[in-house]
Amino acid sequence: MTVIVEIRPKEGILDPQGRAVRNALQTLGYNRIEEVEVGKLIRLELQTDDPAEAKRIAEEAAEKLLYNSNVEQYRILLPGETL
Amino acid sequence: MKWGVVVFPGSNCDRDAEDALGRILQQPVRFVWHRDRDLEGLDGIVLPGGFSYGDYLRSGAIAGLSPVMEEVVAFADRGGTVIGICNGFQVLTETGLLPGALRRNTGLRFICEDRPLRVEHNNSRFTGRCETGEVLNIPVAHNEGNYYATESELDELEAHNQVLFRYCTPGGEVTEDANPNGSTRNIAGIMNRSGNVLGMMPHPERRCDPLLAHEDGRKVLESVIRWFETQ
C-alpha cells in the first residue's frame, strides 16, 4: 500500500523558500498567485493492505524521523485521500 | 582533557577540530566513527561542522539517529562535555539535547564570513575565559543557521542563562542589522540547562591558529579545557 506523508511549514513559521518562489512567480507575471508554501512529500511503500496499520506505521515514522515538530506539521494520506 | 571528534559521512570540519584541539591546544584527541559506540576514556566530544548525510531530509536529522549519537546522549546525561558546531548544533537540536531547530537563513543565501558575537556571560564552562559582554570574531559558514524556538522556549533559555552567544555589531550591540540569518533574538549559541552541552553555529575551531591572525575561537575551547583542569 502506498502512503503519502505531506510535510509543511508549521502555521506562523516563516517560510523563506515559499516567499522566494512566490516572488519569482510574480516576476513571471503570475499576479494571481498570492501565496506559495514549500514543503516535502514523502512516499512510503508499505507491506500491508490494512489502512489502519499503514497509517499507524507512517505516523510513527513521521514522529520519529520524517518531520520536525518545532517547525513543521504533517498529514498522512492513504490511498484515495487527496491533498 | 581527552577529546573525541565524531565523524559522520559528510562531516568536513572534523580535521579542523582535531587540529585545533590536538596540534594547537595540545590535548589528546581521537576521531570517533559514527558507527562506533566506544567513547571510553573521553572527557569531551565535538560534533563537527559539515553536511552529514548530505543534509538529506533535514540538516542533522539522519546523523541524530546514528549509533554513536545514542552514546553521546548517554555521555551528555552523565554530565560529559559536548560541543556541537554548525552541523553539530543541528544534530544536537535534532536529538533533543538542545531545544529549538535551525531553519534556512532568511536571506536564502549560504553565509561564509567572520561575524562579531557577544558573549552573554562567562559563568559557564564554555565562556569562563571570556569577559561578559566581550565581542569575539568567529566565522560562520551555513545555509541553515536560523535558530528558531517558541517564545516560551526562548524565555526559558534566557531565564536559565542558557544563551551564550548572540550576533552583534562590532561594538557589541545586538541589533536586527547585525543578525545574519534571522535567528530569533540574534541567538548564535546556547547551552543546555545543566550547562554541559553547547551548540553554536559559528566555528571557534577555525580561529585558533596564530597564523590566521584571529584567535578568538581559542577562548571558547580553552575555557572548556581550563574548566576541566580545575575540576
Description:
The complex is a heterodimer of chains A (83) and B (231). Chain A has 83 residues and is α+β, with helices and mostly antiparallel strands. Chain A has two helices and three strands; from the N terminus they run E-H-E-H-E. A three-stranded antiparallel beta sheet of chain A has the order 2-1-3, covered by helices on one side. Chain A is elongated, with a radius of gyration of 15 Å. The mean pLDDT of chain A is 93. Chain B is 23% helix and 24% strand. Chain B has a single domain, classed as Rossmann fold (3-Layer(aba) Sandwich). The longest helix of chain B has 14 residues. The model of chain B has no long low-confidence stretch (mean pLDDT 97). The chains are: A alpha+beta (83), B alpha/beta (231). At the A-B interface, helix 1 of A face loops of B.
Tell me briefly what this model is.
The complex is a heterodimer of chains A (83) and B (231). Chain A is of the alpha+beta class and 83 residues long. In chain A, 34% of the residues lie in helices and 24% in strands.
Strand order of the largest sheet of chain B: 2-1-3-4-11-10-9-6-7
**What is the overall pLDDT average of chain B?**
97
Beta-strand segment tally of chain A: 3
Percentage of β-strand residues of chain B: 15-25%
Question: If interface size is counted as residues with C-beta under 8 Å from the partner's C-beta, which chains form the largest one?
Answer: A-B, 10 and 19 residues
Oligomerization = heterodimer
Mean pLDDT of chain A: 93
Q: How does the major sheet of chain B shape up?
A: 9 strands, mixed
CATH superfamily of chain A: Phosphoribosylformylglycinamidine synthase subunit PurS
- Helical percent range of chain A? 25-40%
Distance between the termini of chain A: 17 Å
CATH class label of chain A: Alpha Beta
Please give the largest β-sheet of chain A.
3 strands, antiparallel
The helical percent of chain B reads: 10-25%
CA radius of gyration of chain B: 16 Å
Number of helices of chain B: 5
* Overall tally of structural domains of chain B: 1
